[in-house]
Every structure is written in C-alpha cells, then in structure tokens.
# Entry
Amino acid sequence: MNKTSSTPSHDIPSYLDPNNLGPWGIYLAQVDRVTPYLGDLARWVETLKRPKRSLIVDVPIELDNGTIAHYEGYRVQHNISRGPGKGGVRFHQNVTLSEVMALSAWMSIKNAAVNVPYGGAKGGIRVDPSTLSMGELERLTRRYTSEIGLIIGPSKDIPAPDVNTNERIMAWMMDTYSMNSGSTATGVVTGKPIDLGGSLGRKEATGRGVFTVGVEAAKRIGLSIDGVRIAVQGFGNVGGTAAKLFVEAGARLIAVQDHAGGVYNDQGLDVVALQTHVTEHGSVLGFAGGEVLQPEEFWACDCDILIPAALEGQLTAHNAPKVKARMVIEGANGPTTPEADDILQANNVLVLPDVIANAGGVTVSYFEWVQDFSSFFWSEAEINQRLVNIMTDAFTAVWNVGQQHKVSLRTATFIVACTRILHARAMRGLYP
Ligand SMILES: NC(=O)c1ccc[n+]([C@@H]2O[C@H](COP(=O)([O-])OP(=O)(O)OC[C@H]3O[C@@H](n4cnc5c(N)ncnc54)[C@H](O)[C@@H]3O)[C@@H](O)[C@H]2O)c1
# Structure
C-alpha cells in the first residue's frame, strides 16, 4: 500500500448536498490546497475531511403563549486528536449543519495553529433569538444544553459564546450541565461571568490578539505602527479593542464602519470618545468627531492597515481591487471570500487570516479552562502577557512556514495546524 496517500471512499457525506456544500465546501478546498505540503502525513488527510461526530438535536420549548415550538440544534466535533473539542455556540436563524461543520473544522485549525491542547468543535441552533423573550431564551438554552449533554463536558468538549450568545447564556449552560451531572462543573464552558469562574482579560483577548499579530507582521514588512493609518469595520468587542490598542501604540484611526454607518477623520478619530458615543447611541452614526463615510468609500479609504471585524463575506471580488492598505487583519471569522483573497494576494496586500489573527479569544478561553480546573485565578497582567507570548510564537511559526514555501499566510497557517493535527493522529494510530 502506498503510505503517502490515503484512499478516499465517499468524499461528500450523504447528509450534505454535493451541489451546494456551503461553507463546508470552502473548508474542503482549503484542505486540498494544503495537502501537497503534508508529506507522509497526507496519508491521514481524509481524517480532516469528515467531522468525527455530528449530533443533530430537536429542541422543543414551551413559548410564553402556551404553544410548543421546535428548533433544530447541532453540536459537531470535527477533530479531537489533540484534546477535547472546543468552539462556540451560535444562535441564528440561518445556521446550517454545513456551516457548523465548517466552523468546527476552522476551530481545529485555529486551536492547532496557536498550539493549545484542543480539537475543534462548534454548535448552533436555527433560531432568531431576538424573537424570544428572556424566559424563552433561557428554556431554549437549557434544553439544548441538556440534549447535547451526551457529548460535552470539561474533558470532552467545551462550548463558548459565538454570534448572539454571551456570558448570560454561558451561565445557563454551565448551570444546566451541572444540575444534570450533580456537581458544579465550571470548566464545561468558557466565556462565563467572572463570578462563575470566568477569566480576567477574556473580553479584550481577541482584539489584543489582532493587535499583537498586526504588530509582528508590520515589523516584518517595514511598517512602523507610529503614525500608521488604520480603518476598522465593526466597532464591537473585537474591532473596538483592536482599534484602541493600535491608537495607544501611536496609530491613527481614520475610518470606522459599523452596521448603521461610517465615520472618517483624516487627522484621526478620538477612539475613547467614539467608544462612548457607541455605548450611548448603539452605533458610530452621528459621531461629531468625523465626517460621514459612505459604505463603498470605506474599503477604498487611504489606510495602511484594514481590519474587518464584523461579519463574514465582507471583502469580495467587487471591493477587494479597491483596497489601498498594505495589510488586512481578519478580526472577524471568514470576512474575505476566496476570490477576494486571490485579488489581495495579486495586489501585494498581506492578509493575516482569521485562523491565526483572531485566535486570541480561544487562547484566553484555554486559560479560563485551566484556571477552572485548578481553582486558582491569575492576574490580568499575567493573562495578557501569556496571551502575547502565545500569539507571537504562533505568528512567528506561521510566518516562517509562509516564507519557506512561498505561500499565503492562510495556507501557511493550515500547513502548521494540519501537520500538528495529523502528527497527533499518526502517533495515536488507528483504533482498533
Ligand atoms: N468576540 C470574540 O472573542 C471573537 C473571537 C473570534 C472571532 N470573532 C469574530 O469577530 C467578529 C466580531 O465579533 P464581536 O465579538 O466583536 O461582535 P460584536 O457584536 O461585539 O460587534 C460586531 C460589530 O460589527 C458591526 N456590524 C454588524 N453588522 C455589520 C454590517 N453589516 N456592516 C458593518 N458592520 C457591521 C456591529 O455594528 C458591531 O460594531 C465576528 O465575526 C466574530 O465571529 C469574535
């Protein structure tokens, strides 16, 4: 038998539509791109093309009006070769199994890229939570947790917040799992409130990671942070924190766009005043310290660093050719379409991909889980320093692989991560 190649049997699982693979199709293409660089480990590559375990659950709840509603829920564990599953839970009306599979796989890549001892997992419910009362949301969360309780646990699979879930929901998940198992299990989820075993520094962790890899990359392309012009899409947790850290380091924040509008100031926006405005008004719209920026102008603005930190699919074949920045740092998950990725690369725009750039959040989630196990909590300064060390080392490894193989940083991150995952797979061997 040829030990360097595997024998694909069924490439596409029967439960997906081969003509419309959705996000899972994008992930499969990324794995194909990296396979030539995996050497002997390519023998195991089919492992990455199928999730280890996918659970689909029915989540029935009684609505406030007395009727019974049913929602479709998922928990997918893509890979657990390097440790327990880890990944968020998304509440959104458009969640699909394909999307949860892809997000779980990207968690495998992200966790291996920063070398935290986790596999990849993700969960979700097809629901628009804005249509539910607080009581309905709690019942939904608790029933879902109970249904996926079969496969989650502090040493099995550890959920966390994602789109439309937060620390309030994590508290309900922790309580439900604990009630079912008969003792308080703080380590079953991360992103919890501080008083329930959450970690200091978790809230800012993703933005801090974005800033850290940005500084590292800037050094390598000869870009000084002092006076550098940055533009940020999304001024929430990730974008707001990253913008603040860049400004504190001497950068000039010239443009911000969020769901309601955009603001521009060539001399630099006052980041603290803008944060106060957003807290008070819910958006950057109407901020007095800058001029109004139209959506199309945002992508073409005269900046050095562009940080998409809002939604997926924002940089497209349509707007990517207009980008003037020298570097794009993906704070959001999946903000750049594959076509835009190729255009940016052809135009010499360096893209720091999500699978490394926004890994600061899961890194501090890992710290939270470690602190919960030992019931010993670290100082914020200690957490931030450890985060910076991990992100810097991870970025250096990815950069070096990119240089060695002359590939994009996205492919380089996949090479580093897939090698780690498949090396673990090979060492463990195939059971039985
Ligand atoms: N929070 C984390 O720890 C974390 C970790 C990894 C990845 N991410 C990713 O980062 C992204 C942002 O997450 P967050 O936690 O900062 O969310 P958030 O809800 O705090 O902020 C989201 C921001 O995006 C803006 N936005 C929404 N729709 C928009 C639109 N159509 N156009 C422009 N802006 C729009 C909102 O106005 C808001 O400013 C998401 O893709 C998320 O998956 C977050």
Observations:
- The chain has 13 helices and twelve strands.
- Residues 163, 206, 233-239, 257-259, 309-311, 331-333, 358, 361 surround nicotinamide-adenine-dinucleotide (CB under 6 Å).
- The first strand starts at residue 53 and ends at 62.
